[in-house]
Amino acid sequence: NPPSYRDANKVYAKCLRGVADKLLSRLSVGLGLGEKELRESVGGDELTYLLKINYYPPCPRPDLALGVVAHTDMSAIAILVPNHVQGLQLFRDDHWFDVKYIPNALVIHIGDQLEILSNGKYKSVLHRTTVNKDMTRMSWPVFLEPPPELAIGPLPKLTSEDNPPKYKKKRYCDYVYCKLNKIPQ
Ligand code: OGA
Ligand code: NI
């Protein structure tokens, strides 16, 4: 509920496909690869779209609590829509910065799998959320994930003797298992 929700999601998913393809193509070119290479490396047409809905109710002591603790996203990319309540922060140069709410804007996170594929050229963004004393915050991230059995590692074209692979190659499902169970990758 509401009953229109399923239809709205269908339309949103369709629109996101175009955004995802464009992002992956530009990020691919940014690595010196062909437009289609990065999309293929994260699973091509098998790329999974995982929608999560975050609900952060008002909190009487926002100074003592976080919405989600600091983390990086496991996926290749996350595309997030928040409501108007400020709360997302990202870590850079030893500081937490508020991610300003911009109406109708999408927030794009580089996730772990893109850091791995690019052998560290693209960095997975460390982020967290705060909570609000009076207002409910919500967000709708869609995680673009490789299919579970696909093995992800630094792309051979992006490594060399001078730039050896910095990450292990492993199936996405194994990566997720280790991360969720806090087992070193
Ligand atoms: C997440 C996340 C941020 C937000 O769900 O992984 O980081 O703004 N959410 O809710
Ligand atoms: Ni996140």
Structure in words:
Helices cover 25% and strands 26% of the residues. With 185 residues, the chain is of the alpha+beta class. The protein has one domain: Jelly Rolls (Sandwich). Strands 1, 2, 4, 7 and 9 form a five-stranded antiparallel beta sheet that branches. A four-stranded antiparallel beta sheet has the order 3-8-5-6, with no helix packed on it. A two-stranded antiparallel sheet has the order 10-11. Strand 5 and strand 6 form a beta hairpin. The termini are far apart. It binds N-oxalylglycine and nickel (II) ion (NI). The site of nickel (II) ion has 3 residues, from loops. N-oxalylglycine (OGA) binds next to strand 4, strand 8 and strand 9.
Give the CA-based shape: globular
How many helices in DSSP terms? 4
- The class by helix and strand makeup works out as alpha+beta
N-C termini distance: 39 Å
Residue windows where pLDDT falls under 50 for at least 5 positions: none
CATH class: Mainly Beta
The CATH architecture name reads Sandwich
The structural domain count equals 1
Quaternary state reads: single chain
What ligands does this structure carry? N-oxalylglycine, nickel (II) ion
Strand content: 25-35%
The CATH superfamily name is: B-lactam Antibiotic, Isopenicillin N Synthase, Chain
- Per the CATH scheme, the topology name is Jelly Rolls
* Main beta sheet strand tally, sense and closure: 5 strands, antiparallel
Number of strand elements? 11
Task: State Rg.
Answer: 17 Å
Mean pLDDT: 97
Helix content: 10-25%
Protein name: Flavonol synthase
Domain Fe2OG dioxygenase: 46-146
Pfam families: 2OG-FeII_Oxy
InterPro entries: IPNS-like_FE2OG_OXY, IPNS-like_sf, Iron_ascorbate_oxido_reductase, Oxoglu/Fe-dep_dioxygenase_dom
